[in-house]
Amino acid sequence: MSDLWPDIETREIEILNLEVIWAQLVNGIIIGSSYALIAMGLTLIYGILGVINFAHGELVMGGAYGGLLIMNATNNYLLALLGAIVSGAILAVGIERIAIRPVRKGTLLLPLITTLGMSLILQSGAFLIFGPNPQAFNTPFIEPVVNIGFTLSLQRILILVVSLVLIGGIYAAIRFTYAGKALRAVAQDREAARLMGINPELVVILTFAISGALAGAAGALIGPLLLVFPTMGQLPLLKAVAIVVLGGFGNIEGAIVAALFIGLIESFAGGFLPNQWVDTIIFVLLIAVLIVRPTGIIRERLEENV
Amino acid sequence: MWKFFSSHLLPCLFLLATLLLTACGSDSTATQPVGAISATTANNSTQASTASNSSQAPATTAVAASGPATTIKIGLVSPTTGTNALLGQNAKYGVDLAVKELNSSGELGNVKLEVAVEDDKCSPTDAASAIQKAIEQDQVVAIIGPGCSSAVLAALPILDQNKVPALAYAASSAKITESGNQYIFRPIPDEIMQVKVLGDYIQNDLKAKTIAFVVEQTDAGLGARQALMQRFKELNSNIKFVEDIQISQQVTDFTPILTRLEAAKPDAVFTVLLLQQGVAFVKAVQERQLKAPILATVAWGYPLFEQLAGKAADGTVRIAFFLPESDDPLVKKFSTGFQAAYGRAPEWQSAMAYDSTKLLGETIKKGARTPQQIRDALATIKYTGVTGLISFDQKNNINLAPGKLLYIKSQDGKVTILGKNQ
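Above: the input entities. Below: the structure tokens describing the complete assembly.
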């Protein structure tokens, strides 16, 4: 700070201030929960297909725009959230049909390229339809604030609550329902699952729908806090990939833990260190984890991944 | 058989549709604006051509009246895509409107203007190749752009090499005109002029004892920060810098930064941020109920910022040198035409791009045809546009007239002028 004007006084902030730590902690958990929504879908798809969907960020963007359109039409945020979930799911299934299904017989490199292409197409599509103008997504939860030692808007609390509900719901479904079992079966061994009478194609579609639904919900939850614009999905995608790597490819518990971890790092590092360090720290960690524990920070149970 | 088709047909149709869409959607020449302007083109062109054929105006002030129609190509280098795409769109609208008017009014005689658009993505590397392409492939004689300061600085050597003049219609970095490059012109007030007004306001009106910086890590952001520190030094201010936050243009979540600001308790916060980031920032400020007044450069523009930020914009103070609702008849005409053509009020970037195009038109009227002639004509030009009187000093920096720089305060979606530069 004083590098330019050594004679001008600067004041050091007390870093170990309890208020500051509390605020960063809560914020980290909230950011982490929204990342978990996004990353969970990505890791589910990897578990089923062995493929990273590089158009996943656009599912977040599509959900945000879908929610925005419905909000503008009906002024009902609940409907907008549902709309975002539905549009995310539809968009995801569309991506599967167009970019993944035709190339599934080839090498695993092909879906990487085709989903990247879909990402560009969707971004340009949003650009053409909605224009480069960022748009504000106003909900009745943005303005009211609660004070828990620092003030935060109800929208943030909503993010936490909805994330918990959705993630908990999907997690329970995967653990305890027949469809969930089918999903885990296909993730373990596709051909064996087919022999057991499960249709892997349907399971793939279901998985994409879930991933799109979660990402779309995330878009409609964080969109109001920022702005909605065509390239808003790019940064979440990067973070989600980092989370999937840290948590273990295809590992749901890992994704949730890694998401919270990254959220907390972003919050604390962003709060206490010069901002340019945050991304560096995250990706250095990524490299370190890949070297030391390639299967992710959660110990992988050998019998199943999902 | 059906399986083959069903799994491949849909993607093929989709790709075909995408190709067709992009082919139809893109163009590199001036677009057709709807509304009042095009309705009058037919009348104006016939009147103008008869007038120019019969006049024997002296060569120094009029365009060559006889001879075959010539086309002059100018380049618009701006961020068409990327985080700053809004700036690019604003610029394109302003340039297109000006070109339409110049071509239809006949004031350029038998010269027709054409615009080639290149994308600089607000990045130095893309700007360099965009400028190169505009000069070599599109063969432009003058350039409006690049947009961001970093992009302009990267383009300077190329302009010098090829001896093509450019008008940096949106770049505030002082380094641009300090560089000594004779081919770049800057028609907007630079960061030193802007922060002088803000610095005086912070020191004398707000009487702030502590200040925090939240700036983007670009030439524009860091330059303005340095200029403000310099201004405080000139004012012999005892102000203390309690926070110095520099972020990338990709940051969207300002909560950790707000936590730091809360702890630092500044009397004022000076920002240099893109429009999107500015909106996210003031929204976070409102959420955390930070009481310090937020100050900004022209980067946020008006009125889009108020529309996007809503109540969060209340109380912010920023610099402006163009307000679309001004009483000036030139501004009124421009704003009405812009609204009719594009359905919204013009931001200052559109006004500046518009005036820059009109400046080039003026040089053409004076008989300039080659890049060097245009450059020389720009150096001595005096023109009153929608952004006021434009003339350049020896460093090709704008001569700032008193009263041109305003600082405005936002409240309930509107702005009031707090003061002007002396």
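Note for the figure: Chain B touches chain A through 58 residues (CB under 8 Å).
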